[in-house]
Specification:
Helix content: 25-40%
Number of helices: 4
Largest sheet: 5 strands, parallel
Strand order of the largest sheet: 5-2-1-6-7
Number of strands: 7
Number of domains: 1
CATH superfamily: HUPs
Shape: globular
CATH architecture: 3-Layer(aba) Sandwich
Distance between the termini: 30 Å
CATH class: Alpha Beta
């Protein structure tokens, strides 16, 4: 009998790293069951600490389109996929979304002194602060 996993939270930002995390989560859910919660964070660009408003620029809507594209690649029934678009730092948004989840899945760009060898700042934050197990996909 396979164990049913309640919620799998996946950080998505449209990068190849996050798409690798999405593919991993899709395979995991296909084998174990459960639902997938796609999460992305957005913020207004700043200049000297002040938000910059660009005409026609809507970062929240752009983030929603990224999640819509990610949901289409999952090829799962709509009732098994939830989308969360939240304003704030990515690590904080993901950790908050992971409350009550069975697993948090994130990709990593791995930039650091040895580019490609270290965790990225968001995946590192999630590994240290998430309220559930974290899978970091490279």
């Amino acid at each position: 009998m396979t164990e049913k996993v309640e919620r799998i939270v996946v950080g998505v930002d449209g990068s190849e790293c996050s798409l690798a995390a999405l593919r991993w989560a899709k395979d995991f859910v296909a084998s174990r069951g459960g639902t997938v919660v796609l999460v992305t964070a957005w913020h207004w660009p700043l200049s000297y600490g002040t938000p910059i408003a660009y005409e026609g620029f809507d970062p929240e809507a752009d983030a929603g389109r990224v999640l819509d594209g990610a949901a289409r690649t999952l090829d799962l029934p709509d009732d098994l996929v939830e989308r969360v678009v939240a304003q704030g730092p990515p690590g904080c948004v993901l950790v908050d979304a992971a409350k009550g989840a069975a697993l948090l899945v994130v990709g990593t760009r791995g930039h650091g002194n040895l580019a490609g060898a270290l965790l990225g700042s968001t995946s590192n934050y999630c590994a240290h602060h998430a309220p559930c197990p974290v899978v970091i996909v490279r």
